[in-house]
Design a protein that fits this description.
Elements lengths: L10 H8 L1 H38 L4 E5 L3 H9 L13 H5 L4 E11 L11 E5 L7 H6 L11 E3 L10 E4 L2 E8 L10 E4 L1 H13 L14 E6 L5 H10 L6 E4 L1 H44 L1 H9 L4 H31 L3 H8 L8 H31 L3 H8 L1
Parallel strand pairs: 3-7, 4-6
Antiparallel strand pairs: 1-8, 1-9, 2-3, 2-8, 4-7, 5-6
Helix pairs in contact: 1-10, 2-8, 2-10, 2-12, 8-12, 9-13, 10-12
Length: 403
Amino acid sequence: MSNNLVTLGKLPQKNLSAKPARTAGLLIVVAVLSFVFFGGSLAALSLKAGLTSVQERMGADIMVVPKGAEKEAAGIFTKGNPGTFYFKKDPTSSVKKVAGVKSVTTQTYISSLKASCCASQLQIIGFDPKTDFVIAPWIRSQYSKTLEDGQVIAGANVVPSERGSIKLFNHEFPVAAHLAPTGTSFDNSVFVNKATTAMVVSYSALVGHPAVQNVDHAVSNVLVEVEKGYQAEDVAAYINAMGDMREVGAVTPAGMTSKMKASLASTTNYLFAFLGLFWLTGTIVLVAVFSAMTNERAKELATLRILGARRLELVKLLMSESAILGLAGGLIGVFLGALLMYPFATLIQANMQLPYLPTGWAEGIGLGAACLLFAMLTSVIAAALAGAKMLSKETYLTLRAGD
């Protein structure tokens, strides 16, 4: 007989299971709140990590590109738009003579084709391992061997064939290494040395789409490291002012990333403002829903008061129910958020056209735990406010109102 008794400790579970429709409605509200909050916060953190990754990869103080190609060059780094451009005349020797220039290295950018001759449209980046101080140190941190002629190093999103090669302009290039994700355009790029760059150019001509025309040695970008004591902006101005440098444009990566940072900050600010407004609206909705639910249960609560339950015990009862709802709804929302944000990170990055580096699982778990705690606290506070207001009435009046 005693096993059938329902104590105040068992009432929360009994009440929730007794009203499945009401419980499901509350679960949906909390789950939606948690889903939006978790997913939005994860996106904001990933954008921030992507910007940091871009800044780390832009190890040069100045980029010297063909005049008119500044936006295209910025797009390669920031938006991952494949592009091909090059100088009609290599300016490297002239750049070296400019005051404040410590060292230089060159890169060549070639976009593969959306055609059967290529596995997919990729950004091919040719660099000089002997002089490079931007890409080479990063690659060496993951691949310690020498990049041989005819080999490529693939970015994180580049998928080699079963034979371990990449098809570019009807030629199979063996993949020497596969790099870790960076959240930048480098994830969709392949890296080759100078000799392989020349091979790519020759193969592109054979398929009728020469990547480079009327140039013996294609250079797309001259990267400059500035000497101590000089400002990158000043050295860039010196380069632009030289008489034989009228066909070049000098860009400081700091300026490029600062513009992107401002754009990214604006995006994340709007995102966090939306999250805050959404959560505030959701909290108001929860308070309204719990108030309606509590009013609906007025007679039940008044009866418990007559049977000896104290007001504080009844408030705790409502808070226990809401804590269960907050935990369950939060788990559903966080799970759905993770199910969307992690597997589709590449698609999200492509659509946002911004550096996007998905946060690690450790950070994601921490954010999910914080979201669960927030969901439970919000639900408990909403229930406590609604319950306190309801239970402040006299029991007799509550019972009469329920008749």
